[in-house]
Amino acid sequence: MLKFLSRVKIEYNALDPRIASCMEFMAQCNSRKARESNPACQVEVKRRTDDFPPQITVTFVNGVEQAFDATSTPAQSIRTMILQKGQTLETEQMFKEAGESWPVIIPKEELSLPAPGIKPRKAEEKKQ
User: Fold this and answer.
1) Closest CA to 1 of 30, 23, 115, 17
2) 2 contacts 38 by C-beta, under 8 angstroms
3) Which of 13, 26, 29, 124 gives the lowest tally of CB atoms within 10 Å of its CB?
4) pTM given for the model
5) pLDDT tens, 72-124?
6) CA–CA separation, 68 vs 78, rounded Å?
7) SS in 3 state form for the chain?
């Protein structure tokens, strides 16, 4: 998960009962596997004393920053979103390294064409 991030900032008040997501996400960030995936990723924890709601802010390796309200977003949902965004970043990088344009634009007329190597279904097969 951390391999797609350059920075993680976790903010919470230790007395706030809504910190479960922050604590779980912090544990995931501090796991051996996560740290080994990107040792350069900065994980910053800010323990607050005011009424500021728990928040997790991540900065992706491309510089895009995204903040999550940790009172209503489970840690697993944040992790899943990071992994999905990371796959997109990897795909974008592969296209750029290959000299292809990104994003891939598929002409509207090609969307209705059958995929190569797949036989179109016969009308009688569709009825069954």
Assistant:
1) 30
2) yes
3) 124
4) 0.74
5) 999 999 999 999 999 998 988 888 888 888 787 888 888 888 777 767 666 55
6) 8
7) CHHHEEEEEEEEECCCCCCHHHHHHHHHHCCHHHHHHCCCCEEEEEEECCCCCCEEEEEECCCCEEEEECCCCCHHHHHHHHHHHHHHHHHHHHHHHCCCCCCCCCCHHHHCCCCCCCCCCCHHHHHC
